[in-house]
Amino acid sequence: MEHTFAGQWITDDEFARLAPREVFHRPTDPLSLPCEEHRDRHILFRRRFHVPRVTGDETVFVTADDYFKLYLNGRFVCQGPAPSYHFRYNYMEVPVSAFLREGENVLAVHTLYQGLINRVWQSGDLRHGLILDLTQNGAVLLASDTSFLTAVHSAYTETGVCGYDTQFLERYDSRAPEVGFEAPDYDDSAWTHASKSEYDDHVLVRQKSHALVFEEHAPAEIRHDGNKRVFDFGSTFVGYLRLTARGREGDTVTVRCGQELNEDGSVRFALRANCRYEEDWVLSGKTDTTDWFDYKSFRYAEVILPEGAVLTDVSLLARHYPFSLRARLDPAYAKHDGLRAVWELCVRTLKDGVQEVIQDCMEREKGFYLGDGCYTVLTHYLLTKDDTMFRKLIDDAFTASFITDTLVTCLDCSLMQEIAEFPLILISSVLWHFRLTGDSAYLAQNAPKVFRLLDAYRRAYERDGLLRDLDKWCVVEWPANFRHGYDVKLEQNTVCRDAHVSINAYYIEAIRTANKIACLLHLPAYRDETPVVTAFLRAFYDEKRHAFRDGEKTEHISPVGNAFPFAFGLFPDDTGKEAFLHTLRKDGIEQFSLFCTFPVLMGLVRERRYDLLEECLVSPGAWRRILDEGGTVTFEGWGRDTKWNTSLFHLTLSYAAVFLADEDLETLFR
Asked: For the domain that residue 109 is a member of, what is the CATH number?
């Protein structure tokens, strides 16, 4: 049941009279939005309130745009919300009885308006604010209004932007008067009253996914080098470095984080993934503790202390989506040390990596990518039997149809990108969800959306049974050096006029999947797939060479160009199929990367080639290479130098766990 808020959207005077601006557009219709003003705003709210008696039935309903951290009586309660579009904006429902006391209480909220156009949030749209109700036994005890006090948190100064305009690097100043604002005895007498947001247009929906959980990790190893301290936390996590120190007022501590060490043992804080994790911390002259607002992905930290400063405590506060392992490694693999190590790598990746959304990488983009996400939510569900992330991806992907009826690449954000294959993979996800959960009502809810999506592709791009003239980028495989010379012009923000094999193989798989969904719901078939398959074989299959050409205007044949036809059962003869399998066995699964590997493994299940499936999973050039290079979580590829900007905490390749789990994969992928 949805909550009806008594509270108002409140903000500070800077944002109160700013009208929202449009950030959504097709990439083919570029929109330039200046983001020099109203950015990196840390805006605080406080309110004292009276509770006559704590009954055990107290709840906070809360959200903020872009993000918030909530405190009651000085204790951290929660943070959020999960990213969402403003017209379906998530609010959180949080039990808070354990944080309250009889008599006077203090509620404090730290909000952030980031203000950049990126893959993290729908930001840059000039929407900021907080809305909150605190109820007791269903009655509103406290509601956000202009009686709340507000102030800008002046401890945070922007020193740069890292990733793809992903997050700000900060100079955190412990001398700022707002430090400790969450404490009950903090003096807020200089704060001003909040303003009502005059142009608020949020439509609120209850967040169906869970709140984050937090774990504190002590360093596994500490190394002293003069005034420098290097900390190793034993594994790569997502979270916040917590430091407590004493020093002279105005002393500056240099703080660096990284995922690996340089040859000299220093922390490589200029990450491979285009993030430079170096920030400053200014001491107050008392005992201070850092309070970084945004998170990082790191294993190591390097702290350079000014003369006389003393570091008294260090920890890593890791954050992740709630995770309880409810799957097991297939007993057939249990005694295989190599396969067990790959399983444990993938489990650890999803346990520590999934955040409020399924992200691809934890540092460079932090983006809710649709294509990568389809494989990751499947893996996450198989491991946890919790489908909240699965549903969020499906629901939010179809919601993005307001931008274009053929959907977008990154969800719940203001960065506009379109990749042609990703919405077609979504259609398989809808069927996988049903086969795993048996939720026919949810399948029936999504079936019309699947049919409309395919109708949109057919209307916009299908010519004579083939997809052509695609104004969406076809990634095929990534990075590009894994495409084996795929002979079709593939560039972002250009129209690909020629029909080519990979996108059309995806298209046939999507049509077949839609027909399976229709059959399960006792509906007429979506459409006859035969003419499309016939056109596909006529355009791409070379009967003399028993292989598929990359495109209709080339004679070039590549492993990538044959991976998808194999995966989706499109080889018209066994000779071609066996030739592909021979190449796979000879060159290994590592000849492919993020987007071919999963379909190929799925194809091996469909062909019941478990001998070759096992060879792929244990290949020394694939997941074992990540482990051999010291990875504790999956990389964005098979090694640290696989691509020019490799993320060393990337969720996609955790999908090996799907093929190692004790599950009926033949039924799932039939």
From this structure: 2.60.120.260
